[in-house]
Design a protein that fits this description.
Length: about 170
């Protein structure tokens, strides 16, 4: 049995460290009854219906994850490319974890309560502080960027579930 462990580890390592290389392929897998797309140590799920930010938080948690926290340019680039490749366009905005519900202008993750370490705002964002309290991704030109928006507006949502289990590569 132990002789299989090195083979299993060798098969998983390229996926587990995929965030370090933006050219590494992603893969899809089903967890429960939800189809996730895995990149590195995160599994992403795109909500197919539009909802407000609060409902999006609960939906992601019901699916065993959280609203996505984008932690780097590499991760944002992957998400942008994936969304565009799957025909999401300027008509599709996606709720993510960030919000400034506690303190105007300081954006925290709803997942762990800590300030976000990475932000990629669209031009002239954030704006309307005190009114627009939640972050969503929206298409700014040819790429997705972050924008603060009213939490009760409706958008699609991007969930994440951490874990580096192997899955079948696309």
């Amino acid at each position: 049995m132990f002789y299989l462990l090195p083979l299993l580890l060798a098969a998983c390592l390229p996926t587990a460290f995929a965030d370090a290389d933006p050219n590494t392929a992603y893969c899809t897998k089903v967890i429960g009854n939800v189809k996730y797309t895995q990149k590195g140590q995160k599994n992403y799920f795109i909500g197919k219906s539009q909802t407000n930010w609060f409902e999006a938080v609960h939906t992601c948690r019901q699916l065993g994850g959280n609203l996505a926290v984008i932690e780097s340019d590499v991760e944002l680039k992957f998400i942008q490319e994936y969304l565009i490749e799957n025909r999401y366009d300027a008509n599709h905005q996606f709720w993510i974890s960030g919000n400034d519900l506690v303190k105007d202008g300081t954006f925290y993750s709803i997942n762990d309560g800590f300030p976000l370490r990475f932000l990629a705002w669209s031009k002239n964002q954030p704006d309307n502080l005190g009114i627009e309290k939640c972050i969503h991704l929206f298409m700014d030109g040819a790429e997705y960027k972050m924008n603060n928006e009213k939490c009760d507006n409706h958008a699609f949502y991007l969930c994440e579930k951490r874990g580096s289990e192997c899955c079948i590569e696309n």
